[in-house]
Amino acid sequence: MTQAMQASMRERTGRDVDQWVRLVTDGGVDPLDQLAVRNWLRDVHGVPQNSQWAIAFAAAEAAGWVRPSAGEYSDTLFSGAKAALRPLRDAVLAMATAMGSDAEPQGRGTYTPVVRKRQFLAVAPGPRGTLRVGLRYRQAPADDRLTAAKGFAQATHWVHLEAGTDPGEIGWLEPLIAQAYEQNG
C-alpha cells in the first residue's frame, strides 16, 4: 500500500493499515472471512466502508490469502451452467478494452468491471441465463435497449443479452460502451 494511502487511512480512521491488521488479528476475527472482518470493523469500530475493504484485504493477505487474478475470478464466475455465457462476456470485454489503453478489466467475485478513471462497464451472469452488461453514464444515450439499472456494480443502465446470442451480432453495443467510456475518463 502506498504511503499516500497509508496516510489517508490514518487520517480517516486514526490508525494505519498495519495497526488495523494487528487489531483484527488480536480481536479474534477470522482474517480470512473478509465479510466478518468488514462487519466487525463497521460495527465495533465505525470504520468507513472503503477503509473496511482495504483493511479486510490486508488482513486476509497477511494471513496468507492470495487475491485471485481477474482471469481466475472470471473462470469461477463463468463456470458450470454459466460457461455458455463466457464467449459473449469475452466479446463485450474485448469491445470495452478496445476503447483505449486505459480501459482495464478487473476481478470481482460477482462481476467483471472495466475501469478507466472510474468504472464504466460491468458484466455478470444475469437473470434467466442472460449476460448482464451494466454501463455507467452521466448522460445516458437515447436507446430503447437500455433500462435503468437497479443496484448493479455502479451501473446507471444495463442491457441483458440472451445466452444464445452470437457474439458477432452485438456490434450495436459498441457505441453505448464508447459513450460510457468517454463519460468516465
Write up this protein.
- The protein has 185 residues and is α+β, with helices and mostly antiparallel strands.
- Helices cover 42% and strands 14% of the residues.
- Strand 1 (104-105) and strand 2 form a beta hairpin.
Keywords:
alpha+beta; 185 residues; single chain; 6 strands; 6-stranded antiparallel sheet; elongated
Summarize the structure.
With 185 residues, the chain is an alpha+beta fold. The chain is built from 7 helices and 6 strands.
Helical stretch tally: 7
The low-confidence parts are: none
Structural shape: elongated
Give helix % range. 40-55%
- The radius of gyration computed from the alpha-carbon positions, rounded to a whole number of angstroms, is 19 Å
Order of helices and strands: HHHHHHEEEEEEH
- Main β-sheet description: 6 strands, antiparallel
Strands side by side in the biggest sheet? 1-2-3-4-6-5
The overall average pLDDT, rounded, is: 92
End-to-end C-alpha gap: 24 Å
Beta-strand segment tally = 6
Secondary-structure map:
Elements: H1 3-13, H2 17-26, H3 34-45, H4 49-62, H5 70-77, H6 86-97, E1 104-105, E2 112-115, E3 119-125, E4 131-135, E5 147-148, E6 157-161, H7 173-183
Antiparallel strand pairs: 1-2, 2-3, 3-4, 4-6, 5-6
Helix pairs in contact: 2-4, 3-4
